[in-house]
């Protein structure tokens, strides 16, 4: 009886080892970049809720365990996807050269516009990007020219860092809401129709709130520019200790 149990356990362990070797060999054959690109493609078609390791594996014609050769869990994959998004966004953008020609205000506008384009470039891009960690220093050090421009203009490093953080957080939050208003195909969610919102508010009691609907949900490009300009206009370099 005991001998049979030992044989059974041994056979199970051999099967487990065999499956593990298959997964490892498949994972080694997979290119890490291919996994990330497949994840981004799936994100665009399925959205963040539909992004699973199983579906990515199916798209690559491998078994899900093969992906664990490169990524131990889904969060690691999301971090790498976000890093790839940022790396792609900064490719071809020489902020250092731009900093030599234009003032820091223009650099911040370029940064804001580029970040917004990057997030809008993928379905649920803002939801994916928020809370992720960059997996290499490339996208991180890309902000060095911005910090340099601000400190050269009189800001201490703490202030310069706060300016960039505030700007980036505004862009992330703006796009998070923007992607809830406008679908990937460009169709607007009728719940955010400015006229409908205005009509839901008692205009006699709340005339300003009613009239503000167009500014909130009308021209999103203009709203974005207004927000960026307010942040830049509020920067006071050299006044914070």
UniProtKB/TrEMBL annotation:
SUPFAM superfamilies: Homeodomain-like, Tetracyclin repressor-like, C-terminal domain. GO terms for molecular function: DNA-binding transcription factor activity; transcription cis-regulatory region binding. It comes from the Bacteria. Residues 52-71 bind DNA. Residues 29-89 form the HTH tetR-type domain. Pfam families: TetR_C_1, TetR_N. One of its GO terms (biological process) is response to antibiotic. InterPro entries: Homeodomain-like_sf, HTH-type_TetR-like_transc_reg, HTH_TetR, Repressor_TetR_C, Tet_transcr_reg_TetR, Tet_transcr_reg_TetR-rel_C_sf. Keywords: DNA-binding, Repressor, Transcription, Transcription regulation. This is Regulatory protein, tetR family. The lineage of its organism: Bacteria, Bacillati, Actinomycetota, Actinomycetes, Propionibacteriales.
């Amino acid at each position: 009886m005991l001998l049979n149990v030992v044989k059974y356990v041994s056979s199970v362990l051999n099967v487990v080892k065999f499956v593990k070797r298959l997964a490892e060999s498949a994972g080694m054959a997979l290119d890490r970049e291919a996994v990330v690109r497949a994840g981004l493609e799936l994100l665009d078609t399925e959205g963040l809720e539909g992004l699973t390791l199983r579906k990515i594996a199916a798209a690559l014609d491998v078994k899900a365990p093969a992906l664990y050769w490169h990524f131990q869990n889904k969060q690691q994959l999301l971090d790498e996807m976000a890093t790839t998004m940022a790396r792609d966004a900064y490719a071809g953008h020489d902020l250092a050269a731009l900093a030599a020609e234009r003032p820091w205000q223009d650099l911040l506008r370029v940064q804001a516009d580029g970040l917004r384009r990057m997030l809008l470039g993928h379905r649920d891009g803002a939801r994916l990007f928020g809370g992720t960690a960059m997996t290499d220093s490339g996208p991180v050090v890309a902000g060095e020219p911005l910090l340099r421009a601000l400190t050269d203009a009189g800001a201490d490093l703490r202030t310069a860092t706060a300016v960039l953080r505030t700007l980036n957080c505004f862009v992330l939050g703006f796009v998070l809401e923007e992607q809830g208003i406008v679908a990937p195909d460009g169709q607007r969610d009728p719940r955010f129709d400015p006229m409908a919102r205005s009509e839901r508010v008692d205009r006699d009691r709340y005339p300003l709130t009613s009239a503000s609907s167009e500014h909130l949900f009308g021209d999103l490009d203009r709203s974005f520019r207004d927000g960026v300009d307010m942040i830049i206009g509020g920067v006071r370099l050299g006044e914070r200790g």
